[in-house]
């Protein structure tokens, strides 16, 4: 490995790989580190269907020459931009093929330390190698940011885990598993657990489950397209504005931006999941966990509802699918020197129009940029805007 490079990319998911493709296209020297498509290959359950449509599940390269559609056609995988759900295995394989094409020199090395060093950055690795980089792009995705409600923190991992921990559900065959949450991860997990021989039970504070609607076949009228435009993060005028004008979103007041990121596109599953959950998986809706304790080797959950109804639920294991919350303090490679200099809003970095933090040369991509650029950054769909913007900025700087 060279002792220095222009740009170091930490993370090899959709955002990190897309940035590598654009830097390669701009002839900007870079190194990229991480396990390719790690979250998708190892931390999401086999058999899962993506919430995003096929047209919204592309990684980004300068010529848009290697889309998911191109990959599926090449591999003989059935594909449709909207009418067929994307299988997790297909998307992960696409990401690996993208990596081989645009980032063949990716190094599966773990970054253990990132420090500022007189106008540049010093990276240290688990194998004790070191590297100096003029710029660093942090594209770790959802890794390190999984959220577990405080009332459940005290449970050992043999009894309670986050959905991020499960790429394989076979271990739960025949077990009573409580799934907590109402979003896509929770509903997909409940469906897959039920189909793979577990006794799944879904618990959610929401009184109703929400599923995305499948677009009606045929061409929609101009009026419907204006009132309910289709976007890469779902239909709706607000989603259209967030997708088309992420840099304008950055100029909204901070508290407004944070609230929009938290509330826009609330918990919902993709349309194919509806028939796999409703009528098949037992549901406790409108309940919150009032008390949780270990009893006889099981988890005892005391569930309460607003009307005063109380239910005692026992499970062999609890999986919390309660989402992700960005907190830079949870990135193990960021030292106190870096953390103290990065300006944050609710522990997420405040970024410039070019995704640069308050430390010149340090960029954040993906979920970590959502508080600055909006809900689109919670999806792979945001990789195209992000990486084109950063690559152009770095090219101008050179």
Overview features:
alpha/beta; 16 strands; 398 residues; 27% helix; FAD/NAD(P)-binding domain; 5-stranded parallel beta sheet; 6-stranded mixed beta sheet; 2 domains
What layout of secondary structure does this protein have?
Elements: E1 4-10, H1 14-25, E2 30-33, H2 38-42, H3 68-75, H4 88-102, E3 111-117, E4 120-125, E5 130-138, E6 160-162, E7 176-180, H5 184-195, E8 199-204, H6 222-227, H7 237-244, H8 246-249, H9 254-263, H10 274-277, E9 283-285, E10 287-295, E11 298-305, E12 310-315, E13 317-320, H11 336-341, E14 344-345, E15 348-349, E16 362-364, H12 370-373, H13 383-397
Parallel strand pairs: 1-2, 1-5, 5-16, 6-13, 7-8, 7-13, 8-9
Antiparallel strand pairs: 3-4, 4-5, 10-11, 11-12, 14-15
């Amino acid at each position: 490995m060279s002792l220095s490079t222009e740009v170091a990319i930490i993370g090899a998911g959709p955002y990190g790989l897309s940035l590598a493709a654009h830097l390669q296209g701009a002839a900007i020297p870079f190194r990229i580190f991480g396990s390719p498509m790690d979250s998708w290959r190892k931390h999401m359950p086999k058999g899962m269907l993506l919430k995003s449509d096929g047209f919204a599940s592309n990684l980004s390269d300068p010529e848009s020459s290697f889309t998911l559609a191109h990959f599926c056609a090449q591999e003989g995988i059935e594909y449709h931009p909207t009418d067929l759900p994307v299988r997790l295995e297909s998307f992960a394989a696409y990401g690996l093929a993208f990596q081989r094409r645009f980032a063949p020199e990716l190094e599966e090395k773990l970054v253990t330390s990132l420090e500022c060093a007189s106008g540049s950055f010093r990276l240290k690795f688990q194998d004790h190698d070191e590297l100096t980089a003029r710029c660093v792009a942090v594209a770790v995705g959802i890794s390190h940011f999984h959220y577990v409600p405080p009332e459940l923190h005290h449970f050992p991992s043999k009894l309670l885990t986050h959905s991020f921990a499960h790429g394989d559900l076979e271990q739960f065959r025949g077990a009573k598993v409580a799934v907590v949450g109402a979003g896509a991860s929770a509903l997909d997990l409940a469906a897959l657990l039920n189909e793979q021989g577990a006794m799944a039970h879904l618990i959610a504070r929401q009184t109703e489950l929400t599923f995305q609607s499948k677009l009606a076949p045929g061409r929609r009228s101009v009026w419907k397209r204006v009132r309910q435009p289709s976007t890469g993060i779902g239909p709706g005028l607000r989603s259209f504005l967030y997708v088309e004008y992420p840099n304008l979103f950055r100029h909204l007041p901070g508290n407004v931006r944070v609230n929009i990121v938290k509330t826009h596109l609330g918990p919902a599953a993709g349309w194919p999941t509806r028939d796999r959950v409703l009528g098949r998986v037992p549901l406790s809706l409108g309940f919150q966990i009032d008390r949780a304790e270990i009893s006889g080797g099981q988890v005892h959950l005391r569930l309460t509802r607003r009307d005063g109804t109380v239910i005692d639920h026992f499970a062999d294991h609890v999986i919390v699918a309660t989402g992700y919350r960005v907190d830079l303090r949870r990135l193990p490679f960021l030292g106190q020197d870096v953390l103290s200099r990065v300006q944050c809003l609710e522990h997420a970095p405040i970024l410039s129009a070019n995704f640069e933090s308050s430390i010149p040369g340090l960029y954040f991509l993906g979920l970590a940029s959502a508080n600055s650029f909006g809900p689109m950054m919670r999806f792979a769909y945001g990789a195209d805007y992000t990486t084109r913007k950063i690559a152009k900025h770095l090219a101008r700087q050179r």
